[in-house]
Amino acid sequence: MAEKEVTLMKGNEAIAHAAIRCGCDGYFGYPITPQSEVLETLAAEKPWETTGMVVLQAESEVASINMVYGGAGSGKKVMTSSSSPGISLMQEGISYMAGAELPALIVNVSRGGPGLGTIQPSQADYFQTVKGGGHGDYRLITLAPASVQEMADFVDLAFELAFRYRNPAMILSDGAIGQMMEKVVLPPFKPRRTEEEIARECPWATTGRIGMRKPNVITSLELRSEEMEQNNLRIQAKYRVIEEKEVRYEDYMTEDAEYLIVAFGSAARIAKKVIAIAREQGIKVGLLRPITLWPFPTKRIAELGKKVKGILSLEINAGQMVEDIRLAVECNVPVKWYGRLGGIIPEPEEVVEEIKKMTR
Amino acid sequence: MTREEIIQKENLVYKKPELLNDVPMHYCPGCSHGVVHKLVAEVVAEMGMTEKTVAISPVGCAVFAYKYIDVDWQEAAHGRAPALASAVKRLWPDRLVFTYQGDGDLACIGTAETIHALNRGENITIIFINNAIYGMTGGQMAPTTLLGMKTVTCPYGRDPKLHGYPLKMADIAAQLEGTCYVTRQSVQNVASIVKAKKALRKAFEYSMQGKGSNLVEIVSTCNTNWRMSPDKANKWMEENMVPFYPLGDLKDKGKE
Predict the structure, then answer these.
(1) Which of A350, B171, B187, B208 has the most Cβ atoms closer than 10 angstroms to its Cβ?
(2) If contacts are CB pairs under 8 Å, which of residues 102-141 in chain A contact chain B?
């Protein structure tokens, strides 16, 4: 077997290359720092000449997400990427896609807010991503990569989950992972689906009434309350299945841990360094890294909560995921939060101090 | 002659288009939408594109267009239909893709999507129903409401000092390099209906020939919110709307 080719690239570039390789049909996006390399890389790679993938710079993030709605509605594998303020602009479209049950990938290389905020990394879009963001009762399948490798790997996974459940999926990354360069093994090339495959796999898609089949309609509208309640209940039932089957997380040195850090993405990488320093000083710390932020690893955190003396939620925000951890452990163990704001990444040493405070 | 003798295929002079579903429309009696729906249904079938059409409906009175014309439809968020259409057409280049939008959807909340889709030269057709008012929400001022015209949000008449000026979208569209065909039509009598149908057919054909984007504006009536009888609304449209929104082709690059 041939050696896997290892290349060095930015997280944003990995997203673009992975999209081309996993048979993505279309990308629609608008420039915003710190994610512009996704569109730039796609423009430079010219996939329309190789795989036939459409790449279009839209007039806004609002247009981008609605192009994604259109493409997804026609059964194609389509995506967009942006950063926090742009993702805010997309929320209406994301809600419509959840309502119309359309599969697509949205990548958020998040930055610090609120408002125009900063172009430096942040995890402050956790609430927006997992609690709704847009209007109505809906959920967004959310993957949180902690490396450039995972940026590449999660593109295909996100599409797979999105199409399996007919639901939009998000990769919630941040400016650090988007901008940093790391070794990455890109996924193998997978051909784009043929028209026949789309007709078979997405019988609901608006591709034209081939063979004079019954017309398909993509909509989230239903004015009859009884029908709309049924639509909602059907979508909620789907969410319960996703919560049951699709939780992903990484356990790291939790076997003997007396204290637990829960952290995702960039913060989880800092947590591993924290654990190394703390263990040198005789404090047994472990990490639970949620890979899916929704569905959240509630059960695993509850189990670990019974074994440890305290939990620290390490986040690059003002304390958002900490609420879900507290709900998971139901006040059975003290749960603290530590984080930095404004685009500042916490130093491992300052986190170790927080752990020490918990041991006192 | 008995009834049965009269109802024979050879005596048929007019019938409901095959693609128009046999369901009651929610449009008010006298509204222009029903006529335009009929024309769209006829043109799609006559072009043999029933199996290859993807239509995009707006938010507004035509939100339920998908219940009436028997093709594949996507229902867009308010104003975003041209963005959906752009993506569908690029991903399915051999499909007939059109949007069907009102003035609030197209010329107000969706101005950016409209202008950019047209200017990118997307091979789509935008059908624009301009009745100078928000119909579905109950008769509020539209971007195309005429000066002096009364609506529930400009009850003393549209005043440019308070509300600015009506927007001539077709005139803007005609200036854009990406547009192939821009026309303004109406459907208040048989002659205008025949012309409007030809315009729709031309626009659809240009879009399939890859000649660029097409805008077919239909200067329309909203007798309910104009608070007029259908007949009076048609006359009011001819006397007030048409002078400000003159009918005819503004641009036809396709025949070059």
Answers:
(1) B187
(2) none
Other Cβ atoms less than 10 A from the Cβ of A132: the count is 17
Number of H helices, E strands in chain B: 12, 9
How far apart CA A315 and CA A205 sit, in angstroms, is: 39
Provide, as residue numbers in chain B, all residues whose Cβ is less than 8 Å from the Cβ of A59.
112-113, 116
How far apart are alpha carbons A201 and A204 in whole angstroms?
Answer: 9
Please, which pLDDT band fits residue B256 given cuts at 50, 70 and 90? confident
DSSP three-state, residue B171: helix
Kindly give, in sequence order, each residue whose CB lies less than 8 Å from that of residue A212, ignoring residues fewer than 6 positions away.
B50, B51
pLDDT under 50 in chain A at which residues? Answer: 1
Position A3 scores a pLDDT of 65
| d(C-alpha B130, C-alpha B241), whole Å | 10
pLDDT at B225: 97
Q: What ipTM is given for this predicted complex?
A: 0.96
pLDDT score at B1 = 81
A56 interaction partners in chain B (CB closer than 8 Å): 86-87, 90
Residue pair B173/B182 in contact by the 8 Å Cβ criterion: yes
* Confidence label for B218 from pLDDT (cuts 50, 70 and 90): very high
Task: Please determine, for residue B111, whether its predicted confidence score (pLDDT) is greater than 80.
Answer: yes
